[in-house]
Amino acid sequence: MSAVLQSPLGLTPRRGLLLGTRGWVGVGAALMAVLVIVPSLNLMLPAAHPLHLPDHVVALVGKIMCYAICALAMDLIWGYTGILSLGHGLFFALGGYGMGMYLMRQIGRDGNYKSDLPDFMVFLDWKELPWHWAWSDSLFLQLILVLAVPGLLAWVFGYFAFRSRIKGVYFSIITQALTYAAMLLFFRNETGFGGNNGFTDFKRILEVPLAQPSTRMVLFVTTGLVLIGFYLMARALVHSRFGRVLQAIRDAESRVRFTGYDPLSYKLAIWTLSAVMCAVAGALYVPQVGIINPGEMSPAASIEIAVWAAVGGRATLVGPILGAFFVNGAKSWFTQAFPEYWLYFLGALFIAVTLFMPQGIVGLWRRNKKEERA
Q: Is there a contact between 92 and 282 (Cβ–Cβ < 8 Å)?
């Protein structure tokens, strides 16, 4: 068993070393960009300055960083544990709805109907808030729900699925069915989540206007720090004994079980952690984008998360982050320049990666470096 734990896929993680010199330089550069460069270019330089960073660019990068958190979460379960989920968009959306409920309450009487209730409730002739909105006026309590609700759902679902030893394509199909069922549920007006329109027209957070440039920059910086923090956490995790067991489960689950380890507890732990990471990303996404609706639970949204991880390179951690930036950056450009061809490009990209770059962008770069050394 020691060989399985110490050398999954022939790679033995180095003990006691979270990052090498290049890694820490990269983290330092990312911190410098998030904490100094972007805020300076956006807030301190006038709009007419050639180096000024427009608000819409800051918002786009902030949104992509939220997607990068989801891609990183996907890498932990797919790249390192061998669990392909096609339903992680559900956890992302649940986190977004949790934050959206608080932001809707922050609108107060500034809505179209000048009521303490959200506009969609007034339109539907609701007289009071439903029970699940009881804590929605407190950011702290809503943030607890952002973590607890997706985490509990993931734990319950994962417990029954993993205990039944459902895996492979069957597990992927079940997760996709779960998120699709949730999407249909949230489309219904009587659930109290805004129906097909969802939540929008947010105005404040902690009584501070969202449209204020400094508020948007605080959200951007927070998202960047959370992404870097999750990356370091994931790096420490996969280089620990726990991470080596996860990789052994990915490579030879039956052997892991035979030697006395319980794959259920390990898979359940990483699955729940991955779901919570996506929920945090959703909570950060909503105030920056300004809307959340059931469309975030669509099967296509969950599939895209897997595409980001595959394009960047599975089991690399940094690869899925790069994949999220590459795919969504290309999406932003293509949907403006050639909107009718974007889906064709995405499909072609995924096919090309599968056929010619099975290890993704990072794998291609590593292969080229090896060839140069040879």
A: yes
Give the pLDDT band of residue 346 (cuts 50, 70, 90): confident
For residue 299, the Cα-to-chain-centroid distance in whole angstroms is 15
User: Under a CB-based contact definition with an 8 Å cutoff, are residues 198 and 101 in contact?
Assistant: no
Cβ neighbours of residue 242 under 8 Å, at least 6 residues apart?
266, 269
Mean pLDDT of 107-113: 91
Contact 317, 232 (CB under 8 A): no
> How many residues are there in the chain?
374
Cβ atoms of 88 and 282 within 8 Å: the answer is: no
Burial class of 257 by CB neighbour count within 10 A (0 to 12, 13 to 18, 19+): middle
The answer to whether 312 and 71 have CB atoms below 8 angstroms apart is yes
| 127 vs 124: CA distance, rounded Å | 9
Q: What is the mean pLDDT of the chain?
A: 91
Using DSSP's 3-state secondary structure scheme, residue 73 falls into helix
In angstroms, the CA 85 to CA 314 distance is 14
Q: Which two tokens stand for residue 263?
A: 């794959």
Helices (H) and strands (E) in the chain, counts: 15, 4
The SS3 assignment for 21 reads: helix
pLDDT at 12: 41
111-119: list long-range contacts, CB under 8 Å, 24+ apart.
111/201, 118/194, 118/199, 119/201
Split at pLDDT 50, 70, 90, the class of 344 is confident
Report pTM.
0.93
Count Cβ atoms below 10 Å from residue 306 Cβ, excluding itself: 21
Q: What is the mean pLDDT of residues 23-52?
A: 95
Q: Determine the average pLDDT of the residues in 206-229.
A: 96
Closest CA to 158 of 85, 249, 243, 238: 85
Closest CA to 68 of 250, 272, 234: 234
Quick one: pLDDT at residue 11?
A: 39
Segments making up each domain of the chain, as ranges: 2-11+28-298
How many of the other CB atoms lie within 10 Å of CB of 368? 10
- By the 8 A CB rule, do 276 and 147 touch? yes
pLDDT at residue 133 tops 90 = yes
